[in-house]
Amino acid sequence: MVQYDEPKRREWFSKMDIEQAMVFWNPWWTDEKFRVQAQPRSILPHLTTILNRVEILCITGVRRSGKTTIMRLLINGLIEGGVPARNSLHLNLEDPVFKGLTIQGLFEKYIEMMNPEGKCWIFLDEVQECPKWQMDLRKLPESA
Description:
Number of helices: 6
Low-confidence stretches: none
Largest sheet: 2 strands, parallel
Number of domains: 1
Number of strands: 2
Order of helices and strands: HHHHEHEH
């Protein structure tokens, strides 16, 4: 098991800017061969079907139940299915770098950085940490 030195981790995160944090949470942008190594989940085929039909999909569950892993496995599937890596955005909104920023503002930064073409796939962890997240999510399908 990996042990983290929490004060060093916080110091490292505090030195990151928004672009660096976005790249950190989206390693497939800089390494298209990157894939999350995780045990496949039986729910994935069902979620993939739903993901292709709806604009917003919410995955809920208790902490440490595998929600982030499921999202990252869905991203693996999108990339393996031909979606350009730059068209998938994953953000953990608990990251101190994103503190106080809106989802809309982060999405605009992503568009500026990656210039994705076609449909974008946005995966948000800990969405409740973002101010006015409900309004921003309502606007996203219109701006994506």
